[in-house]
Amino acid sequence: MLAVACLLLVAVTGCKRVETTPPKKVAPEQSLIIGLIPEQQIFDQVARYMPLADYISKKVGVKVTLKVLSRYGNIIDNFVSMGLDGAFFGSFTYTLAHARLGVEVLARPENLDGISTYHGLIFVRKDSDIHSVKDMQGKRFALVDKATTAGYLLPLDYFSKNGIRDYKTYLREAYFAGTHEDAIHDVLDRKADIGAAKNTIFKKMEKEDPGIMKELTVLERSPDVPENGLAVRKDLDPSVKRRLKDTLLAMHTDPEGAQILKKFGAKRFIETTDRDYEPVIKYAKVIGLNLATYDYMNE
């Protein structure tokens, strides 16, 4: 009976061996974790970047998740530990991350006025008696973070150029406010006598409250440096990296993309390379800062 059954099986299959094809494995959903530096309050930061993240997700074909970090330096410390695939780096944090992690910048936004750079400002209240570095002795200074160009490198250079070797002993107090917004508010609220912040945040706050310029005056500004650009880990899938860059650079040509850019406060994204960060590198050299060994942790 067994022999008959075997003969019948052969007849049905046409004398061919039966093969079964294993089911195809479903690839896990691709995703990108993008870090954000805390240049403004966390809710404002998320509200600004979320529509952009959703647009990238749809156009690139990956799910983009945003991670807002508590301070600027964390974006370097946590890039590997948090499994970040990329981040919108400030000019100084990118310079540090590129030197230490090898991240690669892709693009940065050009604002509605066609400007793709920013600069740092040192400011005081107009009703204060501070008009120069000589008047700052014994005063309170609101910095932003040790990993910022506008909120730390500029004050370092300012004091250095004016012959102040140790600003900590020259001032009564120097502390890190954490965000550019907080540094500006602290001077407005008289918590600090002097502040440092980036001009783009200063301008944004001025539009929301025109009284800011009536109460504050600028004493010093830094050279122009690149606006916060998107950089990714060097071993990111080249095809994803290419689609990501192409999507950003072509965004302004798509009506939906153009609308999102407008809300983001940008005209378009422009291609960005390491050469664009040469002013930051030069700035660091002038004040004797070694990017490879620099301790960017706030005291």
Please describe what this structure looks like.
It is built from 12 helices and 13 strands. A 6-stranded mixed sheet has the order 2-1-3-12-4-13. It has a 5-stranded mixed sheet with strand order 8-7-9-6-10, with helices on both faces. It has 2 domains: 31-116 and 226-275, Periplasmic binding protein-like II (D-Maltodextrin-Binding Protein, domain 2, 3-Layer(aba) Sandwich); 120-222, 3-Layer(aba) Sandwich (D-Maltodextrin-Binding Protein, domain 2). The protein has helices at residues 2-12, 42-61, 74-81, 91-101, 149-161, 167-170, 180-188, 199-208, 211-215, 238-250, 255-264, 278-286; strands at residues 31-36, 63-68, 86-89, 104-111, 117-118, 120-125, 140-143, 173-176, 194-198, 216-221, 225-226, 229-232, 266-271. Helix 2 (42-61) links the parallel strand 1 (31-36) and strand 2.
| Share in β-strands | 15-25%
Question: Order of SSEs, N→C?
Answer: HEHEHEHEEEEHHEHEHHEEEHHEH
Tell me, rounded to a whole number, the average pLDDT.
88
- What's the shape? globular
CATH homologous superfamily label of the largest domain: Periplasmic binding protein-like II
Low-confidence stretches: 1-29
CATH architecture of the largest domain: 3-Layer(aba) Sandwich
Find the CATH topology of the largest domain. Answer: D-Maltodextrin-Binding Protein, domain 2
